[in-house]
């Protein structure tokens, strides 16, 4: 029997278009280091976009971050893509990979891929008097996840 899910590289523009069409609360990120597609029997069913960490203190050149993961609801595609992203990052020479979820989200797909919570981050606005911004993301608390060692 053929393996149900497979993976392959995907251009950023194509991954971003998938996120635009399917993600429930985020737009595509500005760029990426690499992106991976998931296919169910040849049909594109999800993408993971991996980029530089958003938090400056994690930008050490050896850490990358899942900035978007999006599927069309295909069973097991999220966990599959988290696993693919972690293996690819390590193969490319990164020492750490992480991602954030809202604290209210279950994290079932991350746990299924062998990731664990390493920190809780208090939600906040990115708007400051010295640098005015419009928040386009949730300001709720978040959890930082990394693959278990």
Total of DSSP H or I helical runs spanning 4+ residues: 3
Given helix and strand content, the structural type is alpha+beta
What's the helical proportion of residues? 10-25%
Elements, N to C (H/E): EHEEEHEHEE
Beta fraction: 25-35%
User: Tell me about the biggest sheet?
Assistant: 7 strands, mixed
Mean pLDDT score: 91
Task: Enumerate the spans where pLDDT stays under 50 for 5 or more consecutive residues.
Answer: none
Could you characterize the architecture of this molecule?
The protein has 149 residues and is α+β, with helices and mostly antiparallel strands. The protein has 3 helices and 7 strands; from the N terminus they run βαβββαβαββ. It has helices at 12-22, 77-91, 108-112, and strands spanning 5-9, 34-40, 43-51, 63-71, 96-102, 115-121, 142-147. The radius of gyration is 15 Å and the shape is globular.
Summarize the topology.
Elements: E1 5-9, H1 12-22, E2 34-40, E3 43-51, E4 63-71, H2 77-91, E5 96-102, H3 108-112, E6 115-121, E7 142-147
Parallel strand pairs: 4-5
Antiparallel strand pairs: 1-2, 2-3, 3-4, 5-7, 6-7
């Amino acid at each position: 029997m053929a393996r149900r899910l497979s993976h392959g590289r995907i251009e950023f523009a194509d991954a971003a278009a998938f996120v635009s069409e399917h993600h429930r609360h985020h737009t595509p990120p500005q760029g990426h280091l690499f992106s991976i597609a998931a296919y169910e029997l040849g049909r594109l069913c999800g993408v993971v976009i991996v980029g530089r960490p958003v938090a400056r203190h994690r930008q050490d050149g050896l850490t990358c971050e899942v900035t978007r993961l999006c599927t069309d609801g295909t069973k097991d595609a999220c966990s599959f893509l988290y696993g693919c992203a972690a293996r690819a990052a390590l193969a490319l020479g990164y020492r750490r990979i992480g991602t954030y979820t809202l604290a209210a989200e279950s994290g079932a797909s991350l746990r299924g891929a062998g990731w664990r919570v390493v920190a809780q981050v208090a939600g906040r606005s990115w708007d400051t008097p010295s640098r005015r911004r419009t928040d386009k993301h949730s300001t709720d608390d978040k959890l930082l996840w990394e693959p278990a060692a």
